[in-house]
Specification:
The complex is a heterodimer of chains A (376) and B (327). Chain A has 13 helices and eight strands. Chain A has 376 residues and is an alpha/beta fold. Helices cover 37% and strands 20% of the residues of chain B. In chain B, the strands form three sheets. Chain B has a seven-stranded mixed sheet with strand order 3-2-4-5-7-6-12, with helices on both faces. A five-stranded mixed sheet of chain B has the order 9-11-10-13-14, sandwiched between helices. The longest helix of chain B has 17 residues. Classes of the chains: A alpha/beta (376), B alpha/beta (327).
Chain lengths: 376, 327
Amino acid sequence: MASTPGTRRAHPKRTTSRPGEAELPLGLTPAQCRRMYRQLVQIRRFEEHAAEAYAQAKIGGFLHLYIGEEAVAVGALNAARDTDHILAHYRDHGYALARGCDPKACMAELFGREDGLCHGRGGSMHLAESARHFWGGHAIVGSHIPIGAGMAYAMQYQQSDEIVLDFFGDGATGNGIFHEGLNMAALWNLPIIFICENNLYGMGATLAEESPVSEMKIKAEGYTMPAVQCDGMDVLSVYDAIQKAAEHCRSGQGPFFVEALTYRFRGHSMADPELYRAKAEVQRWRTKDPIPRFGDFCVKHGICSARELAQVNEEVEQEMLDAVAFADKSPWPEPADVARWIYAKPIDPESDGGPLAVGREVASVEPQPEVSEAGI
Amino acid sequence: MAVISYRDAVRGALRDEMLRDQRVILMGESITGYGGSYAVTKGLIDEFGPKRVMETPIAEAGIVGFAVGTAMGGLLPVAELMTVNFALLALDQIVNSAAKFHYMFGGQWSVPLVIRTVSGFGQLGPTHSQTFEGWFASVPGLKVVMPSTPADARGLLLAAIRDPDPVIFIEHSLLYSTKGEVAEGADPGQDEIPIGKAKVVREGRDVTLVGYSRMLLQALQAAEVLERDDGVSCEVIDLRTLRPVDYPTVVESVRRTHQVVLCGEDWRTGGFGADLLSEIQDRCFDELDGPVQRVAMRDVPMAYSRALEKVLVPTSDQVVEAVRRLN
């Protein structure tokens, strides 16, 4: 489904409160809050099922879970317009689901099937749906930072009011490409929000090992752009920060940097033995879990009852069971199609070593699951 | 038809396409007031302004990443990387972003990007005298073009800008002042030279010389010498595009001449000629009357001193020697 400009307002009108409902902060409506709660649960349950499927070797390669960080994607994408452009890093399931991508197509992509969001060509780290202006998970750390700047320039050039949201981790700030991208965005006053998810670890490196400063926003301030921190475990704190940042960008004031202080509850990837951090630390952060926290908020403000929240959990659980069943049944991509999409304007197969060679050895056997020896 | 330089042919193609299509924008280091390191973009800033001719920081990876983003946002970027040596800093964006997106996202969008860059030498020392076309040509998802004449430079650049895929367009510093006939102002559709089509620039019977860029001119010179001094008739093929390679044209020629000399300027080991050689022996081994000969750069970093540079750079004399080894 292609989203059309103006389908959502940046500043939704406040609806009349029902009797007994407390006033909601940040101009939020009960419907928005319910939507955000459902998305938080969707991401959590999607990934728990993905982890299970990975253990059964139904998903190969690398699987990086976003569990614990859900509030960042959900808060940010709900504060933005559906037509705003998003680019993300490889821990990308949360952005896809918060942008409304079909969990079935997302799961099928992880399973490497033809019905996957990218027809099984990208996998977990490379989800994308351009019709929803979700321009991908990017798996070379920081590489999508100048790409986001370029998209923002294209919006500015075409006098569009769409802005760009570019998500990356604290680890990316040590890479030169981060600095090249921020430098350009500030130099050309581009409408882009840089969202740094500071989860305290660049894979297995602690913040102290990878950065001379513990606050990533300091690095952005060097490029003269406004930079704020928000609580990445609190969907409302993220929503608030991104709403302000989006207003700044959309009104032509240039880039904005938001550092979301967050934490991943699971290892870097499924292969991570987590030798670099203490179990007590993980436990401490688990008490800040964004899902019960926002659930409590919803109950407290009369948005929904505890029973209704439980019902959402059940509905989402069924949705994800359906997604797994769908992915399981989805056909494998045709081996004969392996060279499809290398080019948008295909080249003569006689004039290239690749497709010609591939054509000679088209396999037709059912791919067998392999236990991954993946380290990253 | 006008006789213009290779430099003016590139500039003319950029200018005409910018006039024709508002989406075309340029970006690069010192391409505005300075006019570009090789003066290719000189004057374009005055005509099109800083929104369409963008002066960038010295940040090659950032430039290419930024250009990829503008392409995804609906523009048609032509990014200049001052020399191919500096393109190494942008390899990640070229290989992992530009070349991959259309495939890895299942055909959802393409990256209509042109990267213009320059090979060449001239006492520039080891870090500024290299050529890496073979590296780019090995990447599925890229198209790689190396024109040898002003007419080809214009026609291929127009095709590259209109192509929906990323194209690496490698010019040669020693060709910028060469001149040739160019048809300017032709109608769109009539003015392109298609990517992926080689050209037989000299017909011959005895041996096929395959070259591109500066080495094509060396091959033509060698063909003259061999005709005059040895009575050997050389067919000379300008590949023009290194990915995709027009193998049918090469193979058809080899089936008539039965002998091949491959002329390139990159290092012999792992150089583009090695790949050509492999495909030729695979496709027409039985047609060959002798081993495929290669003229390539010796596997030595380019030295600064004129005395040493002379020893390393492939020349038409080396092409002549290679043909004589066969006969």
